[in-house]
Amino acid sequence: MEDDERHPLNDKPGRSPANRSLERGIEILRAFRQGSELLANGDLAERTGLSRATVSRLTQTLVGAGMLQQDTAQRAYRLAPAVLSVAHAMRSGSSVLAVAAPKMRALAERERINVGLAAPDRDEMVYLESIRYARRHAFRNVVSGQRVPMELTSLGRAYLAVAPEARRQTLLAVFCQRRGARWPQLAAEIEEARHSVRVHGYCAAAWQPEVVAISVPLPLTPAIYSLNVSMLTSETPDTVVQRLSSSLLKLAREILGDLAASEAKSEWP
């Protein structure tokens, strides 16, 4: 991404210079991912596509704003505690999480499975909540804020099944460019998941060894969420679907119903 270009998955053209500076600053913050505590200006330039001069200016601004901390010995930057405070404000203020989390925990405890809620961010899905109660422990520990690939996961495919058509086509083009020779097979799987959501209300995927996940879309305003259940098992995806799909669909209906009732109550004169 050159300095004068927008990210291909940003929607709105025609930003003012001030807005472009803000957008570039957000790109700097986005560059920090799990496992990358410290990033130097060169790392940030490589990850964002911005020039080193632009990155140097933005990192100093973000340090002054309290969003980054500078490690002078390492000549690098880390996210500041204020970023965590913003994330906490998002979670604690989310009406969707307030309704969904207790119901998700109840299902996870009852079935001894993992239950997650995620939302799209560009071409990835971000977990808003992940409750882990599987009988067997997976090799990875999924936590709130963790990102997973949209095109590979049931969470992402459930979102793609109901995403606005223009957005879906833009995302498919990104995946096609990224996956190369593997794309035709993935495209067929995404289309199969779309059909499954349309017919059954859910889709399944097993993109990691012995991990089977089933997801349903939660189309809300203004965002579309995805809800999933998963477990580490040697059973076939069909067996897991037969056992858990009805519980997942019931959970989704309960969440949507309670959110609708809460919204109607708040609008009552």
From TrEMBL:
Positions of the IclR-ED domain: 82-261
Protein's UniProt name: DNA-binding IclR family transcriptional regulator
Database matches in SMART domains: HTH_ICLR
The keyword Transcription regulation belongs to this UniProt entry's keyword annotation: yes
UniProt keyword annotations, A-Z: DNA-binding, Transcription, Transcription regulation
Annotated Basic and acidic residues bias: 1-14
Pfam family for this entry, one: IclR_C
GO molecular-function terms, A-Z: DNA binding; DNA-binding transcription factor activity
GO BP annotations, alphabetical order: negative regulation of DNA-templated transcription
Gene3D superfamilies: 3.30.450.40, Winged helix-like DNA-binding domain superfamily/Winged helix DNA-binding domain (1.10.10.10)
InterPro entries hit by this protein: GAF-like_dom_sf, HTH_MetabolicPath_Reg, Tscrpt_reg_IclR_C, Tscrpt_reg_IclR_N, WH-like_DNA-bd_sf, WH_DNA-bd_sf
Domain spans labelled HTH iclR-type: 19-81
Region ranges (Disordered): 1-20
